[in-house]
Amino acid sequence: SAVADVQSGSGHLQMPASSNGWARAADDATSPRNAGSTHQDAELTATVKATTIGGGLATRLWMRASGAWNGTNQFLQQDGYALRLNQAGSTVAIVETVGGAETQLTSTSFTFSAGATYKVRFQTVGTTLRAKVWNSTGSEPGSWTVTTTDATRTSGTTAVSANTATNSAVRDVYIDDVAITPATSALASTTWSTSR
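Predicted structure:
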């Protein structure tokens, strides 16, 4: 079965060696620390590492999400924007879900290496959605890796998820140093709840 836990201080999502595996964690809006923890104009930063790549592995970092998971594709928020790191397919994309249906808004080629740690910076400001992804051994690039505009979602919560399409081996993704910073105020603390 899937695992969503913390190992050595890092968030850990593990997909089983079966088709259509998934694991996820969501901003716990019920926590007294969060007071709902919704955001409008914000930035999400994190590090992401996949120990192995294959089986259609993809990791999503969600912004302006509804907080509800889709009943069929349980790694998708019912509504929201996600930065999708398609580790197996070598792309970075910004996607949107509406009613659980995912639409790719923009994408670009990007080569991921197994065991390497990548830094991400994902911003939702007004109708602008943009993200940077880079290997943690290098410097942050000056230009955005992907950028697009969309006016469907104006606020929401955060989450992370990972899934495989055709998987013949256990896949592990580690997500660390997650910070959600409102564009106009101090750092917002967030508490994560896990499900599998």
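Summary: Confidence is low (pLDDT under 50) at residues 30-36, 185-196.
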